[in-house]
Amino acid sequence: MMNIQSLRADTPGCKTKIHFNNAGSSLPPLPVLNAMTEYLTLEATNGGYETADFKAAETNGFYKSMAKLLNCSPENIAFTSSATSSFSKALSCIPFEKDDHILIANEDYISNQIVFLSMQKRFGIRLLRAKSLSEGGVDIDDMKRLMDKHHPKLVSISHTQTNSGLIQPAEEIGELCRQRSIHYLVDACQSAGQFPVDVTKIQCDFLTGTFRKFMRGPRGAGFLFVSDKILKTSLEPLFIDMRGADWKEKDVYTLRSDARRFEEWELPYALVVGSKAAVDYSLAVGLEEIEKRNTHLGQIVRKELLDLGLTLLDKGKHLSSIITANIPGKESTEVLQFLRNKNINTSITQRSSAVIDFDAKGVTWALRISPHYYNTEDEIGLLVEALKELIK
Q1: In the predicted model, is pLDDT for residue 182 greater than 90?
Q2: CA distances in angstroms from 171 to 76, 167, 174, 194, 200, listed in the order given
Q3: From 41's CA, which of 69, 172, 255, 328 has a CA 20 to 30 Å away?
Q4: CA–CA distance, 138 with 141 (Å, rounded to integer)
Q5: How far, in Å, CA of 243 to CA of 250, rounded?
Q6: Sign of the CA dihedral 280, 283, 287, 293?
Protein backbone atom coordinates (compact mmCIF):
# COMPACT_ATOMS: atom_id res chain seq x y z
CA MET A 1 0.00 0.00 0.00
CA MET A 2 1.15 3.51 -0.79
CA ASN A 3 2.05 5.80 2.07
CA ILE A 4 0.27 8.84 0.67
CA GLN A 5 1.36 11.15 3.48
CA SER A 6 5.00 10.23 2.94
CA LEU A 7 4.66 10.84 -0.79
CA ARG A 8 3.07 14.22 -0.11
CA ALA A 9 5.83 15.08 2.37
CA ASP A 10 8.22 14.48 -0.51
CA THR A 11 6.26 16.99 -2.59
CA PRO A 12 6.75 20.61 -1.45
CA GLY A 13 4.00 21.90 -3.75
CA CYS A 14 1.36 20.01 -1.80
CA LYS A 15 1.74 22.49 1.05
CA THR A 16 0.28 25.37 -0.94
CA LYS A 17 -1.51 23.97 -3.99
CA ILE A 18 -4.10 21.38 -4.93
CA HIS A 19 -2.49 20.22 -8.13
CA PHE A 20 -4.78 18.58 -10.69
CA ASN A 21 -2.65 19.55 -13.69
CA ASN A 22 -0.34 16.54 -13.79
CA ALA A 23 -1.08 16.02 -17.48
CA GLY A 24 0.43 19.47 -18.03
CA SER A 25 3.35 19.62 -15.63
CA SER A 26 3.38 17.63 -12.41
CA LEU A 27 4.79 18.57 -9.01
CA PRO A 28 8.33 17.12 -8.71
CA PRO A 29 9.33 15.26 -5.54
CA LEU A 30 12.32 16.25 -3.42
CA PRO A 31 14.74 13.67 -4.89
CA VAL A 32 14.28 15.32 -8.30
CA LEU A 33 14.82 18.81 -6.91
CA ASN A 34 17.82 17.73 -4.86
CA ALA A 35 19.49 15.91 -7.76
CA MET A 36 19.28 18.99 -9.98
CA THR A 37 20.28 21.60 -7.39
CA GLU A 38 23.24 19.48 -6.29
CA TYR A 39 24.40 19.17 -9.89
CA LEU A 40 24.00 22.88 -10.60
CA THR A 41 25.92 23.72 -7.44
CA LEU A 42 28.78 21.47 -8.55
CA GLU A 43 28.79 23.13 -11.98
CA ALA A 44 28.93 26.56 -10.37
CA THR A 45 31.89 25.64 -8.17
CA ASN A 46 33.83 23.14 -10.31
CA GLY A 47 32.99 23.92 -13.95
CA GLY A 48 30.61 22.36 -16.43
CA TYR A 49 32.98 19.96 -18.22
CA GLU A 50 34.65 18.91 -14.99
CA THR A 51 31.32 18.21 -13.29
CA ALA A 52 30.16 16.17 -16.29
CA ASP A 53 33.26 13.98 -15.90
CA PHE A 54 32.84 13.71 -12.14
CA LYS A 55 29.15 12.76 -12.40
CA ALA A 56 29.47 10.55 -15.49
CA ALA A 57 28.36 7.40 -13.66
CA GLU A 58 25.18 9.11 -12.50
CA THR A 59 24.30 10.54 -15.89
CA ASN A 60 24.99 7.18 -17.54
CA GLY A 61 22.67 5.69 -14.95
CA PHE A 62 19.83 7.59 -16.61
CA TYR A 63 19.85 5.13 -19.50
CA LYS A 64 19.78 2.14 -17.15
CA SER A 65 16.84 3.56 -15.20
CA MET A 66 14.87 4.32 -18.38
CA ALA A 67 15.56 0.80 -19.62
CA LYS A 68 13.95 -0.59 -16.47
CA LEU A 69 10.96 1.68 -16.94
CA LEU A 70 10.30 0.68 -20.56
CA ASN A 71 11.57 -2.93 -20.43
CA CYS A 72 14.42 -2.54 -22.90
CA SER A 73 18.20 -2.13 -22.91
CA PRO A 74 20.07 1.08 -22.05
CA GLU A 75 21.33 1.12 -25.63
CA ASN A 76 17.77 1.73 -26.83
CA ILE A 77 17.42 5.05 -24.93
CA ALA A 78 18.24 8.61 -25.96
CA PHE A 79 17.80 11.77 -23.89
CA THR A 80 16.12 14.69 -25.67
CA SER A 81 14.74 18.12 -24.82
CA SER A 82 11.07 17.10 -25.15
CA ALA A 83 8.63 14.55 -26.49
CA THR A 84 8.18 16.73 -29.57
CA SER A 85 11.93 16.78 -30.17
CA SER A 86 12.01 12.99 -29.82
CA PHE A 87 9.13 12.70 -32.27
CA SER A 88 10.84 14.92 -34.84
CA LYS A 89 14.17 13.11 -34.54
CA ALA A 90 12.47 9.76 -35.08
CA LEU A 91 10.57 11.04 -38.11
CA SER A 92 13.69 12.57 -39.61
CA CYS A 93 15.45 9.22 -39.92
CA ILE A 94 12.73 7.56 -42.03
CA PRO A 95 13.44 7.96 -45.78
CA PHE A 96 10.07 9.29 -46.89
CA GLU A 97 9.40 9.81 -50.57
CA LYS A 98 6.62 11.59 -52.45
CA ASP A 99 3.28 9.75 -52.20
CA ASP A 100 4.37 7.65 -49.21
CA HIS A 101 1.50 7.22 -46.74
CA ILE A 102 1.44 7.92 -43.00
CA LEU A 103 -1.44 6.44 -41.00
CA ILE A 104 -2.64 8.04 -37.76
CA ALA A 105 -5.80 8.40 -35.64
CA ASN A 106 -8.21 11.33 -35.45
CA GLU A 107 -7.43 11.80 -31.77
CA ASP A 108 -3.65 12.17 -32.14
CA TYR A 109 -1.79 15.01 -30.44
CA ILE A 110 -1.88 18.48 -32.02
CA SER A 111 1.88 18.78 -32.63
CA ASN A 112 1.95 15.37 -34.31
CA GLN A 113 -0.97 16.32 -36.55
CA ILE A 114 0.73 19.58 -37.50
CA VAL A 115 4.09 18.01 -38.34
CA PHE A 116 2.39 15.44 -40.59
CA LEU A 117 0.44 18.19 -42.35
CA SER A 118 3.69 20.10 -42.80
CA MET A 119 5.35 17.01 -44.31
CA GLN A 120 2.37 16.55 -46.59
CA LYS A 121 2.72 20.14 -47.80
CA ARG A 122 6.50 20.10 -48.22
CA PHE A 123 7.30 16.55 -49.33
CA GLY A 124 4.05 15.31 -50.87
CA ILE A 125 3.49 12.46 -48.43
CA ARG A 126 -0.14 11.39 -47.99
CA LEU A 127 -1.72 11.57 -44.55
CA LEU A 128 -4.40 8.99 -43.70
CA ARG A 129 -6.59 9.05 -40.59
CA ALA A 130 -8.35 5.89 -39.45
CA LYS A 131 -11.98 6.19 -38.41
CA SER A 132 -12.99 6.55 -34.79
CA LEU A 133 -15.41 4.21 -33.08
CA SER A 134 -18.70 5.65 -31.88
CA GLU A 135 -17.79 4.59 -28.34
CA GLY A 136 -14.40 6.32 -28.66
CA GLY A 137 -10.95 5.35 -29.83
CA VAL A 138 -9.47 4.37 -33.15
CA ASP A 139 -11.26 1.75 -35.25
CA ILE A 140 -8.73 -1.09 -35.42
CA ASP A 141 -10.53 -2.74 -38.32
CA ASP A 142 -10.38 0.47 -40.34
CA MET A 143 -6.72 0.90 -39.45
CA LYS A 144 -6.04 -2.65 -40.66
CA ARG A 145 -7.97 -1.95 -43.88
CA LEU A 146 -5.95 1.19 -44.56
CA MET A 147 -2.68 -0.64 -43.87
CA ASP A 148 -3.53 -3.35 -46.37
CA LYS A 149 -4.82 -0.91 -48.99
CA HIS A 150 -2.10 1.76 -48.84
CA HIS A 151 0.92 0.00 -47.26
CA PRO A 152 1.95 3.10 -45.26
CA LYS A 153 5.60 3.90 -44.64
CA LEU A 154 4.70 4.76 -41.04
CA VAL A 155 1.91 4.21 -38.52
CA SER A 156 1.85 6.67 -35.63
CA ILE A 157 -0.42 6.76 -32.58
CA SER A 158 -0.78 8.89 -29.47
CA HIS A 159 -1.05 6.25 -26.75
CA THR A 160 -2.95 8.40 -24.25
CA GLN A 161 -4.76 11.51 -25.43
CA THR A 162 -3.84 14.88 -23.96
CA ASN A 163 -7.30 16.33 -24.66
CA SER A 164 -9.32 13.45 -23.15
CA GLY A 165 -8.95 10.35 -21.01
CA LEU A 166 -8.77 7.98 -23.98
CA ILE A 167 -6.10 5.25 -24.04
CA GLN A 168 -5.59 3.83 -27.54
CA PRO A 169 -4.94 0.10 -28.19
CA ALA A 170 -1.20 0.56 -28.85
CA GLU A 171 -0.36 -3.13 -28.47
CA GLU A 172 -2.97 -4.28 -31.00
CA ILE A 173 -1.75 -1.70 -33.49
CA GLY A 174 1.82 -2.80 -32.87
CA GLU A 175 0.97 -6.37 -33.78
CA LEU A 176 -0.64 -5.23 -37.04
CA CYS A 177 2.48 -3.22 -37.89
CA ARG A 178 4.81 -6.10 -37.03
CA GLN A 179 2.89 -8.47 -39.29
CA ARG A 180 3.24 -6.01 -42.18
CA SER A 181 6.77 -4.72 -41.47
CA ILE A 182 5.54 -1.13 -41.09
CA HIS A 183 7.49 1.43 -39.08
CA TYR A 184 5.60 2.18 -35.86
CA LEU A 185 5.97 5.40 -33.82
CA VAL A 186 4.19 5.76 -30.45
CA ASP A 187 3.73 9.01 -28.56
CA ALA A 188 3.73 8.00 -24.87
CA CYS A 189 3.88 11.58 -23.58
CA GLN A 190 0.85 11.12 -21.32
CA SER A 191 1.43 7.41 -20.62
CA ALA A 192 4.90 7.25 -19.09
CA GLY A 193 4.64 7.55 -15.32
CA GLN A 194 0.87 7.10 -15.30
CA PHE A 195 0.86 3.32 -15.83
CA PRO A 196 3.34 0.62 -17.00
CA VAL A 197 4.63 1.12 -20.56
CA ASP A 198 6.34 -1.96 -22.04
CA VAL A 199 7.94 -1.49 -25.45
CA THR A 200 8.27 -5.24 -25.97
CA LYS A 201 4.48 -5.58 -25.73
CA ILE A 202 3.79 -2.50 -27.85
CA GLN A 203 6.32 -3.70 -30.47
CA CYS A 204 7.13 -0.17 -31.59
CA ASP A 205 10.15 1.07 -33.51
CA PHE A 206 10.11 4.41 -31.69
CA LEU A 207 8.47 5.60 -28.48
CA THR A 208 8.61 9.19 -27.32
CA GLY A 209 7.87 10.87 -24.01
CA THR A 210 8.53 13.71 -21.60
CA PHE A 211 9.42 13.99 -17.92
CA ARG A 212 7.41 17.03 -16.84
CA LYS A 213 4.04 15.26 -16.87
CA PHE A 214 3.18 12.06 -14.98
CA MET A 215 6.88 11.20 -14.61
CA ARG A 216 7.16 14.16 -12.19
CA GLY A 217 10.51 15.21 -13.63
CA PRO A 218 11.93 18.52 -14.90
CA ARG A 219 10.66 20.57 -17.81
CA GLY A 220 12.82 20.69 -20.91
CA ALA A 221 13.57 16.97 -20.71
CA GLY A 222 12.33 14.10 -22.86
CA PHE A 223 13.27 10.62 -24.01
CA LEU A 224 13.29 8.53 -27.16
CA PHE A 225 13.19 4.73 -27.36
CA VAL A 226 14.69 3.27 -30.56
CA SER A 227 14.24 -0.43 -31.28
CA ASP A 228 17.07 -2.87 -32.02
CA LYS A 229 15.61 -3.30 -35.50
CA ILE A 230 16.16 0.39 -36.27
CA LEU A 231 19.59 0.54 -34.62
CA LYS A 232 20.84 -2.35 -36.78
CA THR A 233 20.12 -0.30 -39.90
CA SER A 234 21.87 2.80 -41.19
CA LEU A 235 18.88 5.02 -40.34
CA GLU A 236 19.99 8.23 -38.66
CA PRO A 237 18.47 11.59 -37.67
CA LEU A 238 18.67 14.22 -40.38
CA PHE A 239 20.70 16.73 -38.36
CA ILE A 240 23.15 14.37 -36.70
CA ASP A 241 26.10 15.86 -34.83
CA MET A 242 29.29 14.66 -33.15
CA ARG A 243 27.28 13.03 -30.37
CA GLY A 244 25.75 10.59 -32.82
CA ALA A 245 28.66 10.01 -35.17
CA ASP A 246 32.45 9.89 -35.39
CA TRP A 247 34.23 11.86 -38.13
CA LYS A 248 36.72 9.37 -39.57
CA GLU A 249 37.98 10.91 -42.81
CA LYS A 250 37.44 14.19 -44.66
CA ASP A 251 34.17 12.97 -46.21
CA VAL A 252 33.41 9.99 -43.96
CA TYR A 253 31.65 9.57 -40.64
CA THR A 254 30.40 6.48 -38.81
CA LEU A 255 27.25 6.16 -36.74
CA ARG A 256 27.04 5.29 -33.08
CA SER A 257 25.61 1.83 -32.65
CA ASP A 258 23.16 2.82 -29.89
CA ALA A 259 20.20 5.20 -29.61
CA ARG A 260 22.44 8.07 -28.56
CA ARG A 261 22.99 8.68 -32.26
CA PHE A 262 19.70 10.62 -31.87
CA GLU A 263 21.10 12.87 -29.14
CA GLU A 264 22.94 16.16 -29.46
CA TRP A 265 26.40 16.67 -28.00
CA GLU A 266 25.25 19.48 -25.71
CA LEU A 267 23.19 17.86 -22.96
CA PRO A 268 21.53 19.69 -20.04
CA TYR A 269 23.20 17.45 -17.47
CA ALA A 270 21.27 18.78 -14.49
CA LEU A 271 18.06 17.81 -16.27
CA VAL A 272 19.48 14.37 -17.08
CA VAL A 273 20.17 13.60 -13.41
CA GLY A 274 16.82 15.11 -12.44
CA SER A 275 15.10 12.87 -14.98
CA LYS A 276 16.95 9.84 -13.64
CA ALA A 277 15.76 10.71 -10.14
CA ALA A 278 12.18 11.00 -11.43
CA VAL A 279 12.36 7.58 -13.10
CA ASP A 280 13.85 5.98 -10.00
CA TYR A 281 11.15 7.56 -7.85
CA SER A 282 8.38 6.18 -10.07
CA LEU A 283 9.96 2.75 -10.08
CA ALA A 284 10.25 2.80 -6.28
CA VAL A 285 6.58 3.74 -5.88
CA GLY A 286 5.66 1.09 -8.47
CA LEU A 287 3.94 1.67 -11.79
CA GLU A 288 1.29 -0.97 -11.11
CA GLU A 289 0.46 0.69 -7.80
CA ILE A 290 0.42 4.11 -9.45
CA GLU A 291 -2.01 2.83 -12.06
CA LYS A 292 -4.35 1.42 -9.39
CA ARG A 293 -4.28 4.63 -7.38
CA ASN A 294 -4.85 6.79 -10.45
CA THR A 295 -7.75 4.64 -11.58
CA HIS A 296 -9.31 5.01 -8.13
CA LEU A 297 -8.91 8.80 -8.09
CA GLY A 298 -10.17 9.12 -11.67
CA GLN A 299 -13.31 7.15 -10.88
CA ILE A 300 -14.07 9.44 -7.95
CA VAL A 301 -13.56 12.60 -10.01
CA ARG A 302 -15.75 11.36 -12.86
CA LYS A 303 -18.57 10.36 -10.49
CA GLU A 304 -18.46 13.67 -8.64
CA LEU A 305 -18.55 15.67 -11.88
CA LEU A 306 -21.53 13.69 -13.13
CA ASP A 307 -23.28 14.25 -9.80
CA LEU A 308 -22.77 17.99 -10.35
CA GLY A 309 -24.63 17.66 -13.64
CA LEU A 310 -21.57 18.27 -15.80
CA THR A 311 -21.04 16.49 -19.11
CA LEU A 312 -17.94 14.32 -19.32
CA LEU A 313 -16.18 14.35 -22.69
CA ASP A 314 -14.04 11.25 -22.22
CA LYS A 315 -14.89 8.38 -24.55
CA GLY A 316 -13.27 5.00 -25.00
CA LYS A 317 -13.07 1.49 -23.60
CA HIS A 318 -9.98 2.33 -21.54
CA LEU A 319 -9.69 5.68 -19.76
CA SER A 320 -6.70 7.30 -18.09
CA SER A 321 -6.14 9.76 -15.26
CA ILE A 322 -7.12 12.63 -17.56
CA ILE A 323 -10.72 13.78 -17.09
CA THR A 324 -12.34 16.36 -19.35
CA ALA A 325 -15.67 18.07 -18.86
CA ASN A 326 -17.82 20.72 -20.47
CA ILE A 327 -19.15 23.64 -18.39
CA PRO A 328 -21.90 25.37 -20.40
CA GLY A 329 -22.30 29.12 -20.04
CA LYS A 330 -18.80 29.71 -18.73
CA GLU A 331 -15.69 31.11 -20.40
CA SER A 332 -12.60 28.94 -20.23
CA THR A 333 -10.42 31.70 -18.76
CA GLU A 334 -13.07 32.37 -16.11
CA VAL A 335 -13.08 28.74 -15.00
CA LEU A 336 -9.30 28.42 -14.92
CA GLN A 337 -8.76 31.63 -12.96
CA PHE A 338 -11.61 30.92 -10.53
CA LEU A 339 -9.99 27.62 -9.56
CA ARG A 340 -6.50 29.12 -9.41
CA ASN A 341 -7.79 31.78 -7.02
CA LYS A 342 -8.67 28.88 -4.73
CA ASN A 343 -5.19 27.39 -5.16
CA ILE A 344 -6.52 24.58 -7.35
CA ASN A 345 -4.49 23.93 -10.48
CA THR A 346 -6.28 22.51 -13.52
CA SER A 347 -5.95 23.09 -17.26
CA ILE A 348 -8.02 24.19 -20.22
CA THR A 349 -7.87 22.46 -23.61
CA GLN A 350 -9.05 24.59 -26.53
CA ARG A 351 -10.54 23.41 -29.82
CA SER A 352 -7.31 24.38 -31.60
CA SER A 353 -5.56 21.53 -29.76
CA ALA A 354 -8.13 18.90 -30.73
CA VAL A 355 -10.00 20.12 -33.82
CA ILE A 356 -11.33 16.77 -35.04
CA ASP A 357 -12.16 15.41 -31.60
CA PHE A 358 -13.81 18.57 -30.24
CA ASP A 359 -15.80 19.21 -33.43
CA ALA A 360 -17.19 15.69 -33.16
CA LYS A 361 -18.11 16.35 -29.51
CA GLY A 362 -19.60 19.75 -30.29
CA VAL A 363 -17.45 21.76 -27.86
CA THR A 364 -14.91 24.55 -28.24
CA TRP A 365 -13.03 23.96 -24.98
CA ALA A 366 -12.83 21.57 -22.06
CA LEU A 367 -11.79 21.69 -18.43
CA ARG A 368 -9.02 19.12 -17.97
CA ILE A 369 -8.52 17.61 -14.52
CA SER A 370 -5.59 15.21 -14.15
CA PRO A 371 -5.06 13.74 -10.68
CA HIS A 372 -1.98 11.70 -9.83
CA TYR A 373 -1.24 9.19 -7.10
CA TYR A 374 -0.13 11.77 -4.50
CA ASN A 375 -3.48 13.59 -4.69
CA THR A 376 -6.08 12.83 -2.03
CA GLU A 377 -9.80 12.25 -1.82
CA ASP A 378 -10.06 15.37 0.36
CA GLU A 379 -8.51 17.44 -2.43
CA ILE A 380 -11.10 16.08 -4.84
CA GLY A 381 -13.77 17.16 -2.38
CA LEU A 382 -12.41 20.72 -2.34
CA LEU A 383 -12.34 20.76 -6.15
CA VAL A 384 -15.97 19.64 -6.28
CA GLU A 385 -17.03 22.30 -3.78
CA ALA A 386 -15.28 24.95 -5.84
CA LEU A 387 -16.98 23.79 -9.05
CA LYS A 388 -20.33 23.71 -7.25
CA GLU A 389 -19.82 27.36 -6.29
CA LEU A 390 -18.77 28.24 -9.83
CA ILE A 391 -21.78 26.74 -11.60
CA LYS A 392 -24.52 27.60 -9.12
Answers
A1: yes
A2: 19, 11, 5, 17, 9
A3: 69
A4: 9
A5: 18
A6: negative
pLDDT tens, position by position, 38-84: 999 999 999 999 999 999 999 999 999 999 999 999 999 999 999 99
Domains and CATH numbers, the chain: 4-27+286-391 (3.90.1150.10), 31-284 (3.40.640.10)
Q: pLDDT tens digits for 213-230?
A: 999 999 999 999 999 999
- pLDDT class for 388, splitting at 50, 70, 90? very high
Q: Residue 350 and residue 68: Cα distance in Å, rounded?
A: 36
Q: Which amino acid is at 51?
A: T
d(CA 61, CA 114): 34
Q: Which amino acid is at 331?
A: E
CA distance linking residue 132 with residue 110, whole number of Å: 17
**H/E run at residue 247:** strand 245-249
C-beta separation of 127 from 112 below 8 A: no
